[in-house]
Amino acid sequence: MEERIIYCPAHFGNFYECASYNELRSYFKEFKKWGATGIGTCVDPANMVDPFGKNPLYRWAREKPTKELKRKRDLLCAAKDEGLKLSLGLISNVVYIDQLSEELSADTGKEGYIGPNLCPQNLKL
Known about the structure:
Elements: E1 5-7, H1 15-18, H2 21-33, E2 38-43, H3 63-81, E3 85-90
Parallel strand pairs: 1-2, 2-3
Helix pairs in contact: 2-3
């Protein structure tokens, strides 16, 4: 395989979210020895409010996504500084929890389904 990208989910308090820049860089150096050519992570807004939103009801909650996005940036910078390619995944039908409205939401038909999912059929672009 030409590309061997390791997925590093930096959320929920795991190593990739909590490690320092130097720890990440050391870890990624080891990944290169294993033959990795890149590092990937994703941004999943399902468990955070819009960090750029203006709604005053959520001002208290904007610190968490801002910190999480900075940690993902640090993770990708450490990988880049180790000479690895970068990959960032975005989930196209998920929005921040303060952005979902009833008329846009998807009916998943599953009880307990996680995430504020949009239904593409309900979008009017």
